[in-house]
Amino acid sequence: MTAVPTPLNKDLKVEVAPLAAHVKRLAAAGTEGVVPLGGTGEYTSLSARQRLEVVECALEAGAGKLHVIPGILSPGIGDAIDNAKAFVAAGAKALMVVTPYYFRPTQDGIIEYFKRFSDAVDADIILYEIPYRTGVALQYQTVDRLADMTRVVGIKACNPDLAQQMRVAELAKSKLAILTGEEDVLPLHVAMGAVGAVISSSNIIPKQWARVLRLAMDGKLAESMALHASLRPLIDAIFAEPNPAPLKAAMDIMGWGMGDVLPPLLPASAPLRDRLAKVIPSLLERE
After folding, report:
1. Which one from 43, 113, 140, 156 is the annotated catalytic residue?
2. Can you name the residues that pair with 33 across neighbouring β-strands?
3. Which residues contact 220 (CB under 8 A, 6 or more apart)?
4. What angle do CA 267, 22, 92 make, to 5 degrees?
5. What is the distance of C-alpha 152 from the center of its chain?
6. Nearest-angstrom CA–CA distance, 100 and 113
7. Which helix (DSSP H) or strand (DSSP E) does residue 180 occupy?
8. Which residues contact 261 (CB under 8 A, 6 or more apart)?
9. Is 52 helix (H, G, I), strand (E, B) or coil?
10. Which DSSP string do the residues of 98-129 spell out, in sequence order?
C-alpha cells in the first residue's frame, strides 16, 4: 500500500483533483491500497475539514479499485475518535492509527487508548508504530494483547529494532498482518514475518516496489535484496530531507504536481531537487 501525499495549491489549500488522478494512477499500476493522511499526507498540519476532504476524495477515486485506509495521527483520544467517525461515515472500512504520542504513556495506557478507540469506532484498525517520531514504542506483548481484545487487524511497523520485529512476528503474526513501513529494510522485514508494506516511495515506482515485496514473500530473498539495492539512490534521496517535501518535489519533477508542504516543513532544497532529477529518469525507464 502507498502512503499518498496531500496536494496543495499555491495558497497551501487542499487540491483534490491531483489526488484523485494519482489514486487512479496507482490503481492502474496494480497498487492494492492507498493510505491518505499518514505522515506523508501531513495529517497533523491539516484542519479536520481538510482531512475529511482528502478522505472523501481518495475514497471516491479508489472505489472498487483499491483499498483506502485513512490515517489517524491525533495524540488525544477525543480528536482521534471524532476524525475516525467522520472518515467511517464517509465510507472508510479500516483506519491506520498511530500510537498516542506527547503523553509518553505506559503500555497499559496504550492498551486502554486503543480499547476505547476500538469500542467507539466501527472500523478495523492498523496500529501505526513509529517510535523515532512519537517517542512511544509498543512492546511485543502489547501488540499481542491488542490483537486479542480490539479490532486491530494489522500493524505498520516502523520500529528500527529488528529484534522487536521478530518478537512481534513470533507472538502475533497468526493474529494480525505485519506491514513494514521501512523502505530501508523491507526485504528483511518480510523475511521476519511481514506480509505487506505501507511506504511512500511507491508513489513513484509502484511496480518495482511490488516486485521487491513479491520476491521476498516468495522466498527469493537474494533477488529481492538485489532489486532493493538498485532502488537505494531513490530511497536515500526521498528521505534526505523531512518527508514529504522530497517526495512532493519528485512528483513535481514527474509532472504530477502535488504542491509544497505546510509549515513547519519547508520545500525540498534546490540541491535535492537536482539530485532527484538525476535519479528518477533511469528508474522510470524500468517501471
Report:
1. 156
2. 67
3. none
4. 105
5. 16
6. 8
7. strand 177-180
8. 8, 42, 45, 244, 245, 248, 267
9. helix
10. EPP-SS---HHHHHHHHHHHHHH--SEEEEEE
- How many alpha carbons lie under 13 Å from residue 207 in its C-beta half-sphere? 8
Write the pLDDT tens digit of every residue in 36-78. 999 999 999 999 999 999 999 999 999 999 999 999 999 999 9
Identify the CA nearest to 55 among candidates 75, 74, 31, 72.
Answer: 72
Catalytic residue among 43, 113, 128, 140: 128
**Residue 47 CB partners (closer than 8 Å, separation 6+):** none
Return the beta strands (E) in 31-151 as ranges.
33-36, 67-68, 71-72, 94-98, 124-129
Could you report the per-residue pLDDT of 159-185, keeping only the tens digit for each? 888 888 899 999 998 999 999 999 999
Q: Is the pLDDT of residue 13 over 90?
A: yes
Tally of CB atoms within 10 A around 179: 24
Q: Give the model's pLDDT for residue 159.
A: 84
Q: Does 156 participate in catalysis according to the annotation?
A: yes
Neighbours of 33 (CB within 10 A): 18
128 an active-site residue? yes
* 3-state secondary structure at position 91: coil
Q: Are strands 94-98 and 71-72 parallel, antiparallel or unpaired?
A: parallel
Q: In Å, what is the CA distance from 278 to each residue of 178, 260, 282?
A: 34, 20, 8
